[in-house]
Amino acid sequence: MTTATILKTINALPIAERMIIIEKVIRTIRLEKPDSANPDSANPAGADPNSPSPSGDPWFDDPRNIAIVKDAIQSANEDKEKNVVLKTKEDIKNYFANL
User: Fold this and answer.
1) What's the rounded Cα separation, in Å, for the pair 62 and 60?
2) Which of 1, 19, 75, 91 is the most exposed place for a label (fewest CB within 10 A)?
3) Residue 85 — φ and ψ, nearest 5°?
Protein backbone atom coordinates (compact mmCIF):
# COMPACT_ATOMS: atom_id res chain seq x y z
CA MET A 1 0.00 0.00 0.00
CA THR A 2 1.46 3.36 -0.98
CA THR A 3 1.58 6.45 1.18
CA ALA A 4 -0.86 8.17 -1.17
CA THR A 5 -3.37 5.32 -0.79
CA ILE A 6 -3.03 5.37 2.98
CA LEU A 7 -3.54 9.14 3.08
CA LYS A 8 -6.63 8.93 0.85
CA THR A 9 -8.06 6.25 3.13
CA ILE A 10 -7.33 8.33 6.25
CA ASN A 11 -8.77 11.49 4.66
CA ALA A 12 -12.03 9.65 4.02
CA LEU A 13 -12.48 9.06 7.76
CA PRO A 14 -14.18 11.48 10.15
CA ILE A 15 -11.81 14.07 11.62
CA ALA A 16 -11.82 12.53 15.11
CA GLU A 17 -10.72 9.16 13.74
CA ARG A 18 -8.03 10.85 11.62
CA MET A 19 -6.61 12.55 14.69
CA ILE A 20 -6.46 9.25 16.57
CA ILE A 21 -4.63 7.56 13.70
CA ILE A 22 -2.17 10.43 13.28
CA GLU A 23 -1.46 10.49 17.01
CA LYS A 24 -0.81 6.72 17.01
CA VAL A 25 1.54 7.08 14.02
CA ILE A 26 3.51 9.81 15.76
CA ARG A 27 3.72 7.77 18.98
CA THR A 28 4.93 4.77 16.99
CA ILE A 29 7.58 6.84 15.26
CA ARG A 30 8.79 8.27 18.58
CA LEU A 31 8.81 4.91 20.37
CA GLU A 32 10.35 2.80 17.62
CA LYS A 33 14.02 2.16 18.27
CA PRO A 34 16.40 0.74 15.69
CA ASP A 35 17.76 -2.73 16.33
CA SER A 36 21.34 -2.13 17.48
CA ALA A 37 22.36 -5.64 16.40
CA ASN A 38 21.30 -4.89 12.82
CA PRO A 39 22.94 -1.72 11.44
CA ASP A 40 20.61 -1.75 8.41
CA SER A 41 17.54 -1.35 10.64
CA ALA A 42 18.79 2.04 11.82
CA ASN A 43 18.88 3.33 8.26
CA PRO A 44 16.67 1.21 5.98
CA ALA A 45 17.24 1.73 2.26
CA GLY A 46 19.47 4.73 2.91
CA ALA A 47 16.82 6.60 4.90
CA ASP A 48 17.84 9.89 6.47
CA PRO A 49 18.58 9.12 10.14
CA ASN A 50 17.21 12.55 11.09
CA SER A 51 13.84 11.91 9.43
CA PRO A 52 10.88 11.15 11.70
CA SER A 53 10.01 8.27 9.36
CA PRO A 54 11.77 5.04 10.35
CA SER A 55 11.20 3.69 6.84
CA GLY A 56 12.54 6.79 5.12
CA ASP A 57 9.17 7.70 3.61
CA PRO A 58 9.76 10.88 1.55
CA TRP A 59 6.35 12.25 2.62
CA PHE A 60 8.01 13.22 5.90
CA ASP A 61 10.73 15.19 4.09
CA ASP A 62 8.25 17.97 3.34
CA PRO A 63 8.09 20.39 6.30
CA ARG A 64 4.48 21.23 5.40
CA ASN A 65 3.48 17.61 6.07
CA ILE A 66 5.26 17.62 9.42
CA ALA A 67 3.45 20.86 10.30
CA ILE A 68 0.10 19.27 9.39
CA VAL A 69 0.81 16.30 11.65
CA LYS A 70 1.96 18.49 14.54
CA ASP A 71 -1.09 20.74 14.19
CA ALA A 72 -3.38 17.71 14.12
CA ILE A 73 -1.82 16.30 17.28
CA GLN A 74 -2.10 19.64 19.05
CA SER A 75 -5.70 20.02 17.93
CA ALA A 76 -6.54 16.48 19.07
CA ASN A 77 -4.94 17.12 22.46
CA GLU A 78 -6.87 20.36 22.90
CA ASP A 79 -10.16 18.71 21.92
CA LYS A 80 -9.80 15.69 24.22
CA GLU A 81 -11.56 17.40 27.09
CA LYS A 82 -14.51 18.57 25.03
CA ASN A 83 -17.67 16.49 25.01
CA VAL A 84 -20.29 17.03 22.36
CA VAL A 85 -23.94 16.33 23.05
CA LEU A 86 -26.17 16.32 19.99
CA LYS A 87 -29.83 16.21 20.97
CA THR A 88 -31.63 17.69 18.00
CA LYS A 89 -31.36 17.63 14.23
CA GLU A 90 -30.26 21.25 14.42
CA ASP A 91 -27.45 20.32 16.84
CA ILE A 92 -26.25 17.64 14.43
CA LYS A 93 -26.50 19.98 11.45
CA ASN A 94 -24.54 22.72 13.23
CA TYR A 95 -21.91 20.28 14.48
CA PHE A 96 -21.11 18.99 11.01
CA ALA A 97 -21.27 22.48 9.49
CA ASN A 98 -18.49 23.58 11.85
CA LEU A 99 -16.06 20.73 11.13
Assistant:
1) 5
2) 1
3) -115, 120
Q: Which helix (H) or strand (E) holds 62?
A: none
pLDDT of the residue at 48: 62
Task: Specify whether the CB–CB gap between 13 and 69 falls below 8 A.
Answer: no
pLDDT tens digits, one per residue of 53-95: 767 788 888 889 888 888 888 877 776 666 677 888 888 888 8
Q: Give this prediction's pTM.
A: 0.34
Residues counted in the chain: 99
DSSP-assigned states of every residue in 19-53: HHHHHHHHHHHHH----TT-HHHHSGGG--TTSS-
Question: What is the rounded CA–CA span in Å between residue 64 and residue 66?
Answer: 5
The answer to whether 34 and 41 have CB atoms below 8 angstroms apart is yes
Q: 95: Cβ–Cβ under 8 A, 6 or more apart, which residues?
A: 84, 86
